């Protein structure tokens, strides 16, 4: 019988540890300890911490896309309501963590994008895919006459994601929902205001 592979355990632990501590503060030793894996297992499966972090980001984004699908694929809601539903789902997830952690995509963008071409490129690809999902829903809301068509759906999706990430950063500082609530209230009373 061959040796057990700790690859999946290390990746799962990497998501938890890096989400809590960030990239720099999450040591390989901490990640292996959280996975219950020998320290040497990390180098058996990953060529570097940077390459490992790219896989962790992919795993985190796959999980995030499940929340996106849960909201944006809900045919029982109008497109505008689907957008609001996504923000409410994420607010609930953040509340469950007592406003103490944010979004790994946003956190990595701040922390390591200036220092790693590999991770910067991966983050850019994630944002493009994420933006496309929201742009499609925004275009549907505009076609249905629910929201104003003055702005391009891709531009609105970019604004939505960038502003939402900023609200999450403020939430982490304040350790409360005020920034998220303020963002949702303002954006749905202005850019995404329901058309009469």
UniProtKB/TrEMBL annotation:
Signal peptide: none annotated. Residues 4-64 form the HTH tetR-type domain. The lineage of its organism: Bacteria, Pseudomonadati, Pseudomonadota, Betaproteobacteria, Burkholderiales. It holds the Pfam family TetR_C_13. Residues 27-46 bind DNA. One of its GO terms (molecular function) is DNA binding. It comes from Paraburkholderia caballeronis. PROSITE patterns: HTH_TETR_2. The keyword Amino-acid biosynthesis does not apply. The keyword Transport does not apply. This is Transcriptional regulator, TetR family. Keywords: DNA-binding, Transcription, Transcription regulation.
């Amino acid at each position: 019988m061959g040796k057990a592979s700790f690859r999946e355990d290390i990746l799962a632990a990497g998501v938890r540890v890096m989400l809590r501590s960030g990239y720099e503060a999450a040591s390989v030793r901490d990640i292996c300890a959280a996975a219950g894996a020998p320290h040497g297992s990390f180098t058996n499966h990953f060529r570097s911490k940077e390459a490992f972090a790219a896989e962790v980001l992919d795993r985190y984004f796959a999980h995030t896309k499940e929340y996106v699908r849960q909201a944006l694929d809900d045919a029982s809601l109008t497109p505008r309501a689907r957008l609001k539903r996504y923000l409410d789902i994420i607010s609930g997830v953040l509340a469950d963590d007592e406003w103490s952690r944010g979004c790994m995509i946003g956190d990595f963008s701040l922390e390591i994008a200036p220092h790693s071409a590999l991770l910067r490129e991966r983050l850019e690809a994630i944002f493009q895919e994420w933006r496309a999902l929201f742009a499609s829903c925004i275009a549907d809301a505009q076609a249905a006459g629910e929201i104003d068509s003055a702005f391009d759906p891709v531009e609105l999706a970019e604004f939505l994601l960038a502003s939402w990430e900023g609200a999450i950063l403020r939430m982490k500082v304040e350790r409360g929902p005020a920034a998220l609530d303020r963002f949702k209230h303002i954006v749905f009373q202005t850019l995404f205001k329901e058309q009469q």
